[in-house]
Amino acid sequence: MANGLSRDPYKNYRFRVKLGDTYVAGVTKVTGISRKVEPISFRAGSDDPTSCPTPGLTSFEPVTLSNGISKNAEFHNWASRLNPEAGYAAEDFRKDVTIEIHDDSGSITDGGTTKRLSYKLLNCWVSEYDALPDLNAGENQLAVQTIILQHEGFIKEYN
């Protein structure tokens, strides 16, 4: 590669998640990040009888994070900031969330990989929290909790 860039796409299993400034261990799944611009049909009175689409409102789809249940209480503590029993009085319930994509050069846990790009989700808050999944003694699965985040947009950052 003459320009030093990798030809291979990054793998979808090499990622880390930060809530604010804190890395969260054990995140097993992140749903896709997407934006949608609603088209508005426009036609001037003097135009031919056809319409032309023009951009309207922009919306950002919610993002779901899944995490194996452990002693780490990051998801629970954040989701509890918007607690009906507390009257939704928490002032710091919004956080920026960063999703980092790493390359294949080594292990993320020992610092052997290199962060190649990241997406920062802006002003996220937890709209849904599944604290405990269905439990079944006849299955052999991990207990996974999920949070659904609403956000106000995202920024793509290259390393």
Characterization of the model:
The strands form 2 sheets. Strands 1, 2, 3, 6, 7, 8, 9 and 10 form an 8-stranded antiparallel sheet that branches. Strands 4-5 form a two-stranded antiparallel ribbon. It has one helix at 74-79, and strands at residues 15-19, 22-23, 27-30, 35-42, 52-60, 63-68, 95-102, 115-130, 144-150, 154-158. 4% of the residues lie in helices and 44% in strands. The longest helix is centred in the middle third of the chain and has 6 residues, at 74-79. The protein is mainly beta and 159 residues long. A hairpin with a 2-residue loop joins β1 (15-19) and β2 (22-23).
Total domain count = 1
Which regions contain 5 or more consecutive residues with pLDDT less than 50? none
**What fold name stands as the CATH topology?**
Pnp Oxidase, Chain A
| Gross geometry | globular
The chain-level structural class is mainly beta
Round the mean pLDDT to the nearest integer and report it: 86
In the CATH hierarchy, the architecture is Roll
Query: Could you tell me the number of beta strands?
Result: 10
